[in-house]
Specification:
27% of the residues lie in helices and 20% in strands. It is an alpha+beta fold. Strands 6, 7, 8, 9, 10, 11, 12, 13 and 14 form a nine-stranded antiparallel sheet that branches. Strands 1-2-3 form a three-stranded antiparallel sheet.
């Protein structure tokens, strides 16, 4: 009887310990849940896909979504084309051989696309003759350098292409490493700094009807004046890089409708340049500068230094460092031979 009486208090004590442990466990679980709910960011935890997107710049890139040009073979985007939502080139596709395909977005213009790729707006227009106005969703072929995209014909050679478009054969080979295969099998070649034949023919203006302003313009730089009139009514004045360049006449520093302020980039072969608008309506351009020391909106006097001579842009050939001096609306007074 004594053994039975002592058994029940012991059993009761054991059950009480067990129940206390269960209650404590449930209490801790409830506390953890409440803490998670109260301290969370207000939404579900990020899954692996979202965590990956955070590491890539905030945009999710499912592995199964390949980028397609829409009017050509499907091509995977280059690594640089998927660098995040803030990257303006997320819809860029490599076509190989220096060519890319760009998908037009809302707000795009020929000028801002050209600036983005450091080529001229004309280069984009020439490579996409069927596109007159830009519509979001359509695509553009983009060249790696300002120039012409040439469709090779049977019988073409580097010599006749270079001669026809007056562009350097060495540069063509540099920008087209597979040029031999293209010449034999057909395809496209990038012609650096070239212009379409029709555009190039009209690029050298007839100077007979241009006004002769006599001594209105002063020599813009000390150096050897090659004196040969070439594209866009221009002459080359050669000297050492760093030679000061002065305004040939008073005028306002203005921007170019295609190349902006000209302070950087190839700019269709001009390199770094200054464009001046003069009170009589004529304009002068000072190309291939090493640097510019004026800005758009400045008004300069005749003989005032505006930059220094360099070799930026398309300066290959015998002239080396030189100033490309170009006149619009009047005869170039420093042309010795026409």
């Amino acid at each position: 009887m004594l053994k039975t009486t002592s058994f029940w208090p012991l059993l009761f004590a054991v059950l009480l310990v067990i129940l206390s442990g269960v209650a404590l466990s449930l209490s801790r679980g409830a506390g953890t849940y409440e803490k998670s709910s109260a301290w969370s960011s207000g939404g579900p935890m990020a899954g692996p896909e979202l965590e990956q997107s955070a590491a890539q710049g905030g945009t999710v890139y499912p592995g199964s979504d390949d980028v397609s040009s829409g009017d050509g073979p499907d091509i995977l985007a280059e690594n640089s084309a998927v660098s995040g939502a803030s990257d303006p080139l997320t819809n860029l596709i490599s076509l190989g051989d220096g060519l890319k395909r760009y998908k037009i977005k809302k707000g795009d213009t020929f000028t801002n696309i050209a600036t983005r790729f450091n080529i001229s707006a004309d280069t984009i227009k020439w490579a996409n003759p069927g596109i007159v106005s830009l519509k979001p969703g359509e695509t553009l072929v983009i060249l790696s350098v300002s120039g012409v995209l040439y469709n090779v014909s049977k019988g073409d050679s580097m010599d006749n292409i270079g001669s026809r478009y007056q562009t350097d054969i060495g540069l063509i080979k540099t920008y087209n490493p597979n040029y031999q295969k293209t010449l034999s099998d057909g395809g496209y070649l990038i012609l650096p700094f070239a212009k379409p034949v029709s555009s190039r023919v009209s690029a050298v203006p007839t100077t007979a009807n241009l006004p002769d302003l006599k001594n209105y313009f002063s020599l813009p730089a000390i150096g050897w004046n090659w004196g040969q009139l070439h594209n866009y009514n221009a002459v080359d004045i050669a000297n050492q890089c760093g030679t000061p360049v002065q305004a040939a006449a008073e005028g306002l520093v203005v921007s170019d409708e295609n190349f902006g302020d000209g302070s950087s980039g190839w700019n269709d072969g001009y390199g770094i340049f200054v464009l001046l608008e003069h009170p009589n309506g004529a304009k002068t351009r000072y190309g291939h500068l090493d640097k510019v020391i004026v800005k758009v909106g400045d008004y300069v006097t005749r003989g005032e230094e505006i930059g220094v001579m360099g070799n930026t842009g398309n300066t290959h050939g015998p002239t080396g460092c030189h100033l490309h001096f170009e006149v619009y609306g009047a005869k170039n007074p420093f042309a010795v031979s026409k």
